[in-house]
Amino acid sequence: LRRVRTRGTRSKGAELDVRLLVTHEQSRAGFVVPRHGHTAVERNTLKRRLRDIVRTNGVLRSAGGDFVIYAHPGAYDLRFDALRRAVTARLADVRARTTP
């Protein structure tokens, strides 16, 4: 997480930030979901949704490196489809920034 945070490229959105560090190894994902005044149940639900999006939508195969998704307070209010669109948009943006 620390290496991706310090060396990775960042894409900032209203609900999520994504940092990507291009590697030639197998892609890995990390999630940072702060409290933001929410309960443990709400945090765990958000983490499960993010993991499911990454696992089922082929995000790991297409990421091209290690990435970390940082959740903002607005992410707690998103429905699943909107959360999926936000993750996809942030990853597309950060990939575009890292491609020469």
Could you describe the 3D structure shown?
By secondary structure, the chain is α+β, with helices and mostly antiparallel strands. It has helices at residues 2-7, 40-56, 59-63, 80-98; strands spanning 9-12, 16-22, 29-32, 65-71. A four-stranded mixed sheet has the order 1-2-4-3. A hairpin with a 3-residue loop joins strand 1 and strand 2. The longest helix is centred in the last third of the chain and has 19 residues, at 80-98. The mean pLDDT is 90.
Task: Give the spatial strand order of the biggest sheet.
Answer: 1-2-4-3
The rounded distance between the terminal residues' Cα atoms is: 24 Å
The number of distinct β-strands equals 4
Report the radius of gyration as a whole number of Å.
13 Å
Sum up the overall morphology in one term: globular
Mean pLDDT across all residues, rounded?
90
Q: Count of helical segments?
A: 4
Could you give the topology of this structure?
Elements: H1 2-7, E1 9-12, E2 16-22, E3 29-32, H2 40-56, H3 59-63, E4 65-71, H4 80-98
Distinctive features:
100 residues, alpha+beta, four-stranded mixed sheet, globular
What is the structure about, briefly put?
By secondary structure, the chain is α+β, with helices and mostly antiparallel strands.
